[in-house]
Design goal:
The structure is a single chain. Helix content is 46%, strand content 25%. With 117 residues, it is an alpha+beta fold.
């Protein structure tokens, strides 16, 4: 899989998900958001995704991701996109972040609904 094909596959898949918007990333690349929440971004043939530190540690221990290439002590991970299987893993990790973001949004909406006068 060429780098441009890998990148395009990821962009096209994630852009189809309900509520996801695609933006230029401030450090170059492409960023995906659900409302104001960043799901992650792409730089060339790598994907960077934010996770709670506990999940990040599990992903790294399982070999599904590496510590972030710039912020290794954060919850961020870096995942290469050189092969079809790596592209599938990147999409799966973005989906995991997307599902977490949607669940958090739904929980916040339910909380606001129950606390409204």
């Amino acid at each position: 899989m060429t780098p441009s094909a890998a990148r395009q596959t990821v962009i096209e898949e994630i852009a189809r998900w309900e509520g996801v918007t695609v933006h230029d990333h401030g450090m170059g690349g492409v960023e995906f958001r659900l409302e104001r929440r960043e799901l992650g971004h792409l730089h060339g043939i790598i994907a960077d995704l934010p996770f709670p530190r506990r999940i990040r540690d599990e992903l790294v221990a399982a070999g599904r991701a590496r510590p972030h290439h710039v912020l290794p002590d954060s919850g961020w991970v870096t995942v290469p996109m050189r092969t079809s299987s790596e592209v599938a893993e990147v999409i799966a990790l973005f989906r995991q972040n997307y599902d977490r973001a949607r669940a958090a949004r739904a929980q916040g909406q339910a909380h606001r609904h129950h606390t409204s006068p």
